[in-house]
Amino acid sequence: MTPALTTDEIQRYSRHLILPDVGIEGQQRLKAARVLIVGAGGLGSPTALYLAAAGVGTLGVVDFDVVDVSNLQRQILHGTKDVGRSKLESARARIADVNPHVRVELHDARLTSANALEIIGGYDIVVDGTDNFATRYLTNDACVLLGKPNVYGSIFRFEGQASVFGLPDGPCYRCLFPEPPPPGSVPSCAEGGVLGVLPGIVGTIQATETIKLILGIGDTLAGRLLLIDALSMQFRAMTLRKDPACPACGTRTITELIDYDEFCGAPGAAAMHDPGDLAEITPRDLAARLARGDDGFDLIDVREPGEWAIARIDRARLIPLGQIPDAVSELDKTREIVVMCRSGVRSADAARFMQRSGFTRVKNLAGGILRWSTDVDPRVPRY
Amino acid sequence: MAIAIVLPRALYQYARGSNVVSVTDPCRTVADALASLSARLPAVTDRVLTEQGELRPHVNVFVGTESVRFLDGLATELPDGSTLTIVPAVSGG
Questions:
Q1: Which of A38, A110, A186 would best serve as a mutation to test chain B binding (most B beta carbons within 10 A)?
Q2: Percent of chain B whose pLDDT exceeds 90
Q3: Is some CB atom of chain A closer than 8 A to the CB atom of B87?
Q4: A280-375 to CATH, choices 3.40.250.10, 3.40.50.1000, 1.20.120.80, 3.40.50.2300
Q5: Quick check: A42 contacting B, CB < 8 Å?
Q6: What is the ipTM of this complex?
Q7: From A130-144, A176-190, A257-271, B69-83, the region with the lowest mean pLDDT
Q8: Would you tell me which CATH number, out of the four given (1.20.272.10, 2.60.120.10, 3.20.20.10, 3.40.50.720), belongs to the domain A33-264?
Q9: Residue A349 to residues A183, A264, A313, A341, B40, Cα–Cα distance (Å)
């Protein structure tokens, strides 16, 4: 079906219409296209904005979250007035303002094995703007099962990755990463931080690839993994091959969607190396020990200097996580040590490293300084 | 002989300074280069290799632009002047 363009659309898209390789026919393809964006966050924001501007006829958006003020540093689909509002409603309003010709279909749900095939089945192309491994594997497997292109992007701190999975002879996400990392070993944006503009770069690349797929022009990232390092502004393209042994797109042994939370491990589940549980201490118990002058332990804070400047606990000693391997040789391995960070993830990592290095009395501060702020001292800023 | 190893900034917190490390010890294979890296930055290779010395399934190592999974794994030979790029899975969005 090649939908005709109205007079208004011809004016709106004139810069596309006069572009070789696009033209009226290309613009009509864009108008006929149905693209699903999974996640209206950091990656989904620039993707939605640019696909709407480009005139993609139907944009589906999947999200279940509400706009938080900490989102605004990078999720440019949403604004200050949207704090507290559903991300989907915010997205709908913003897209309508950018381009009222775009039909927006909202999917107010977490994408799960129960709904993914039905939701994705209604679209031509999927853009992966998710923020966790379980949903990435789910999106991948559903796209492979349904034969839909999956435009992939992911970010961490200052670096990003992008590719196009799911083309008939191309690799899929599992060809690149057969298994997810152990739970808790890769911090989320909330835990590790992210340069706000980074998803802008990667999401815009995803939008570009989506448009190229619709128009059938150029060389997409299918068969390549683009590595983006914003700090050095280096772009490296690795070759990605379809793995004939891949259970999703190779041997096709995956014939239905699985339990992805189980596949990726529940949060806080088994540690990366240590089969035993890591000892923990709650902020309340730590506060009680500090209050009675217990000096029989060291409190080590593994956050970064910038975080230390925002908030700290008295008596803590700052040793940023990256310096822990060097610092352990100077610490008493028999002394009781409490390790802390912002929310307890990095400190758990450091504590396990110390255990493997021979420290016998290491404890992790459960919930980090965030829980200290909630449970012990609300004057300590949360960030 | 010099091999350059590009570390992802996800592992950068474990490596002080630049995220490109130069290995000048004689290295015939990828395993040799990672062993040399391990002597200097054990916390980095801790994230790349299992305790049994195998590549972790959520980490890719590229020699030039080719993944060692499609070459000879950790036994892949390294021409002098090669660049290794370590790419772990990240999921932020």
A1: A186
A2: 61
A3: yes
A4: 3.40.250.10
A5: yes
A6: 0.94
A7: A257-271
A8: 3.40.50.720
A9: 11, 18, 20, 10, 20
